[in-house]
Amino acid sequence: MHQADPTTDRVISSVLRYVDYRLRTDDVPLDGQVRSRAELDSCLGGVIREQGRDPDEVLDLYTSVIAPTVLSADSTRFLGFIPAAPTKASLAFDALASSASLQGISWTEASGIIAAENSVLRIIADEAGLPPSAGGCFVSGGSAGNLSALAVAREVAKSKAGDSSDGRRRTWRVVVGQSAHSSILSTLRLLEMEPLVVHTPHHRLTAEALASALAQETDLSTVAAVVATAGSANAGMIDDLAGIADLAQEFGFWLHVDGAYGGAGIFAPSLRPRFRGLERADSFIVDPHKWMFAPFDSCALLYRTPATARTVHAQRAPYLEVLHANGEWNPSDYAYHLTRRARGLPLWFSMAVHGVGAYREAIEASLCLAEATADIIKDTAGLELVCDPDLGVVLFRRLGWSTADYHDWSAALLTDQIAFAPPTTWHGETVARLAFLHPNTSMDIVKTILARMW
Ligand SMILES: *Cc1c(COP(=O)(O)O)cnc(C)c1O
Q: How far is the CA of 225 from the CAs of 238, 256, 320, 324, 431, in angstroms?
């Protein structure tokens, strides 16, 4: 299994041939045929047996049975949820990282990798306006980033309140807007904190809404943090970061900015003003596997004061002490994880090859697609924009349609391989949703999608 032999030789050439083909495919097929569990079990059951199989036979099963069921998140026609559009450079380098089992746990084990990852974190921190002391690590995704950051926020609140000394346990609360991501609520459940949900009639947490919610609270001493979203996963809306930062400062709350999707907007010159206030965040996350064109799975997690995060997350064990003794910077100290892939490296390679300017342009391209789509919707009788897009997400309604009409339209778009565009809800009403992220999505695709509403 571990040496070069004729079987390994064929494994390598067959798999690399497929990787080569896939990387060179310019517009990948959308795919995404859903097959029943029984059907798939009958194809895949018994494949793994006591004795091995011919590698080409197994690879064939992947290409004929498994691959067609995968909705290609990197297709220009994938306009659902938050798409992905990894650059060829990042995908190719991800394959390289796997080929060498690259890991990024500690300085002792992989100093060069960590220095390269940190250089990317530095660029993101600079763009966000965070101080030179800011730092962190790459984790698997926004959910993991939010969990790790809010765990630190809770510990900081606890130590400020001196909970350990008076022996009193309190339930810590975190202020969130109604559009905060589901992973924030899930994190709060895990950390046994309570959300203090601020009503946001316009889906944007504003200083005004936050101030009036806080004014109604009798005891703010249990508030550990406030979470600002930039921007929301459903509609791409950016909270009033500057106004929220003012209040966080005034009340002494930890400010966490969830920019898993929209945080990449700091690279777009046209969005600059919207991110004012981000420079005052105590923690900030952005998922490069979303709008920074990196492969899954990757979230950049940054802290204003990384040393505080280290006291919360560093794992101690006799066999690990050597890492702490020699460690210049151990990514494992800054989140809930120990072993980790060098998941920041594909982004490092791609940013170095293409330059930051190409990233700015690609992000602006998706903003233009959203704007052009919104313009068509405004000009088309029978269509109505739900709200003006802040980022790349466009919500709209087809007047007179029922919930079933939206679902039928969306299902037909996928069956005909035109697009993946599942509807969403807005104040309980089902509406159409297009999330633009791939810079090569064409307006022709958009026009076809809209024409299919008649
Ligand atoms: C996608 C998203 C998350 C969750 O990120 P994962 O990488 O899917 O775990 C959190 N917050 C926001 C705003 C998001 O868009």
A: 18, 7, 32, 29, 33
